[in-house]
Here is the input.
Amino acid sequence: VQLVESGGDSVQAGGSLRLSCAVSGIPVSDYCMGWFRQAPGKEDESVGTITGYGDTRYAESVKGRFTISKDNAKNVLYREMNLLKPEDTGMYSCAAHRGACAVYFLQNSGYRGQGTQVTVSS
Here is the structure.
């Protein structure tokens, strides 16, 4: 199983980015998928999940600005990020878990990619 993120970049505050997570070895259609963010000195933070059926949940800090989606045919998970803020800076990684779609399981028993860096300057 491999999860490979891409799309990270350095942008100005207010800008937008689209992250991708290419998945191989498992079908995203059957898995709970999620995006995590880790900033220097801070804990690993969930910024959104999507179930196999396509139901989404977001952290309060990104609601209205970030969107998570997936393409089952391409087996890819996406993250659209708009109105970026400096506090959105961090390493963004995707995760997959078969079963209950909960952050705990994604963090502790799921598959995880290496991450892609997002830096937002003011």
